[in-house]
């Protein structure tokens, strides 16, 4: 149980199967409802059906926010901060539990009181309840611990993250953060003298914290409405840039502050492209401080002017707001801005898979692009073969013809199969382009026939089985037909 | 135009006959720049010349812009000074709410509970300029934050100032001098001090407007064209909208006209220029809400009106003289004079009778005197943006004026910028220019013409004002630059020009070129100078090349030293921001003391949005701008009694102060305390001004002498006066400071600013509570507690001996148990039968 976090809001579940090789697999989790029961329920899909009698080990990680309530709610500067944790003695589940142990790990040894169900054992900062045997489903019993906790109860009350992608190879990230100390509220005066002279004065206040920025972050700035905040340090590590952020003033309970942090990233680390299709892969939320809680987050992604077909993928559910337009640097028709909100987030939400935004319907477009190149290549093959036939006609060397034929056959096969696989992919994407591609395939087979026919004719001509005039006539016919087909294919390709 | 006075056009012709002088012009341009390209300048003179001037002006702009960036580069792009935070705040308001909203802006966050009508009490030129630039840039989708526009506005305008100075000097003397003047004004510290990046003050754009207006004025006097005069009026309008110093223009231009009349230099050009200027300028200036009807009501504008009337009369007389015979004219003249004298006499009697004498007297007494007095006073007044001197001056009703002045002068005197200038600061701000500018003035007077009369008057009045007040150094700087440039240019002409002449025989086409450049050259283009130069040349024929090169080298050395000095002063004296303090360690690393912003930001984030913060007025604009909280008094010191009330609260004891603070709805009190780091500009050092200002309004409650020791010293240690040691300001500054030991050599509670151990170490508050103290204790904020729900007794409950002991048994019988009251009226009671039976 994270010390900071939660009000009965299940944030986030990661099921993990631990097999014999201690391999950890994340399981698929979906939210469901159970009739007549309150609370949040989740369906977990196991990798393989569980046979009767078989065993599986599943570990569930849940993160709660705003669960620890400061008690007393107001303290003076000299006092320590105590919090109350309320939870459940039992594992809340729709299944009967055979045996169960509950361990509560606390932030300090100093415990005021705790519920004494089943005579729990206490050691240092750990409470152990149970083991309880044969617990019926949906059992609940309030667990309550009142203990000292001086860890900084920082909460990001709201945060706006703006990611501006420039087509000049730069990604500018700017985070506007509203920070509040949500622990016990400071009562009475704040004495700087005591704060400076006595080490345990204001023990639960926040002097500074560390923010970890991406390793490539450059030109970092940390400021607010009235200018640069001069109390910060930047430490460049191998795999990250660590920024020690000191708010202008120490944060006591109930105090808040507001700042802006921004930096530049090179776009080659986050922006991928294939032809004219671009995908941006960045974190939806980034690290601000350890064990962070964000009450509300707005992410804005500003794409370069003229970006079209925008598509967003996210690892978890986000609320997309209407897209906006942003004007800067002599823009004429504005840059598209993707706006997304999410409330109640924790550190575990920092996921790398966040948001392949940018020019989308991309897969389809990407496939069609591939189809295009392949078809063109295939047509090129025919030309190549024609050349081989001509050579043959001049040199009368059957081997060149045969080898040319062979290469044509093999390469044609490869290309055709590739196109076919792409076609099937298109089908799975549910695109109507699939039909067009099949049409191309049909036309192509006709072309191939013609090509082969002409080569046979050429063979016959060389062998003297055919008169030159008729050959030329036939050749003309063939080439006309071929031309027709090729233009047809081209038309379709253009339509793609 | 044909009626132009004879001598001018004659000289003009003479000028063109002199081919040498045309060649010399190029020599001067080259000398002024010290750059090459002279050989090319001979084949294509006009082209080269304009290219050179363009390049030099561009470089001057660039140099001026970049030398103002020290603070931005060393620190950051913010408003670095305290006062401009208001300008920034209102510009921000303008940019985000639009122009009309800005004009109608009632700022309820200032002068609680009075508020301030901002639109009607500011010169909007600065905000509108910045807002306009911001708007244009945003129209083009160039995203620049309004803050950056504000920060870089003054450096950009310094380039425009350089150009307008160039234009003006060119009109007065020649192009070479103009270029030198442009270079001087671009880097001279006297102007940089008010226009560094990050100081977003009216003066930043006003000096440009001032110079440009003067240029257009000179131009209109020279040409007598209505077009130039209208341009001059528009420029004057911009100046009025930008700075209270416009009064300088509206007095200097009439003075110029007046002196021209005295010098018998009246001409139709002057008549056209001044009549147009006065009428259009007057109407335009009245469009600024803050100025309103002042131009026709207040005495500092009366000189202009008087000269206008005088000019009309003079022109009328001139007209009559043309029409009438001498005899008729004389009778008419005497009749008119005696009539006027009679009217004036009667009106004086009337005004004295009705009690409006003191104000009107100034109008009536000699125009010349009025100027000096009124301009000086009004300048002071306007420069300190609406300081209460305005009331002092306007307070014409009866003898109130004197008393008013006595009360209000402390607040003006308390501003360090209003102190008289020292000689050091003349040299510091102007360096070599202060020595050379009299020479330039002498050159001008020696070859006097209409516009040089103007520059002479400009110089003399500006010198006088600069001597009165440090702040007015700013108006002196441009004219010093111009006159020094003339002096330098002249010297260079003599010592470099000759070489040119020897190398290059007189060139005919260049004089033609000169003609082409000024088609219809109807006015004298520094003709006298050329003549003068050629005369000089004759006498200096015998100068050896050694002398010439030595003199030139010396002059160049001086200019080089000037440039070095300018950079040094700018870098060291005028580029240290006041919002952020920096100290340097022995190893050269920098410590930033960001206490001001720490505390202001704390206020912004962690107090109620409508909290009212009491502080001394110096910090009012900052609190409004950075902390975004309501203030009681601020740097716009228009209401002296309000300030005095705050001063009284600071200088009374806690109980009395609490009364005042309760009545003013104060939530927080903010003070500046430098005792920990040795910051000398803190509130204890300003404290005597608070006492004086408070005493001015509340002489019964606050007496300055109470805060001194019997020996007349102001001390914070044990020997200090008990009134001081128990007043609110002292207690707030030193609360818990007595426990603090800064280092081992000094006792606890040792104040580094005043080098004394504080006298009152046991400070307790009853009605206040420490709310925040910044890291280096520079800013301390106290919270004013609300009245207690239940008043706690500050003494023990009285112990009386009537309290019955537990074991006490009354000896009284049931019958005698009744107590008795002394002298009680005895009543005879009726008998009760049933009682008796018991």
TrEMBL record, chain A:
Residues 1-19 form the signal peptide. Coiled coil: none annotated. It is found in: Endoplasmic reticulum membrane. Its main location: endoplasmic reticulum. One of its GO terms (biological process) is protein N-linked glycosylation via asparagine. One of its GO terms (cellular component) is oligosaccharyltransferase complex. Keywords: Endoplasmic reticulum, Membrane, Signal, Transmembrane, Transmembrane helix. It is a single-pass type I membrane protein. It holds the Pfam family Ribophorin_I. Pathway: Protein modification; protein glycosylation. Belongs to the OST1 family. Subunit of the oligosaccharyl transferase (OST) complex that catalyzes the initial transfer of a defined glycan (Glc(3)Man(9)GlcNAc(2) in eukaryotes) from the lipid carrier dolichol-pyrophosphate to an asparagine residue within an Asn-X-Ser/Thr consensus motif in nascent polypeptide chains, the first step in protein N-glycosylation. N-glycosylation occurs cotranslationally and the complex associates with the Sec61 complex at the channel-forming translocon complex that mediates protein translocation across the endoplasmic reticulum (ER). All subunits are required for a maximal enzyme activity. Component of the oligosaccharyltransferase (OST) complex. OST exists in two different complex forms which contain common core subunits RPN1, RPN2, OST48, OST4, DAD1 and TMEM258, either STT3A or STT3B as catalytic subunits, and form-specific accessory subunits. STT3A complex assembly occurs through the formation of 3 subcomplexes. Subcomplex 1 contains RPN1 and TMEM258, subcomplex 2 contains the STT3A-specific subunits STT3A, DC2/OSTC, and KCP2 as well as the core subunit OST4, and subcomplex 3 contains RPN2, DAD1, and OST48. This is Dolichyl-diphosphooligosaccharide--protein glycosyltransferase subunit 1. It comes from Crocodylus porosus.
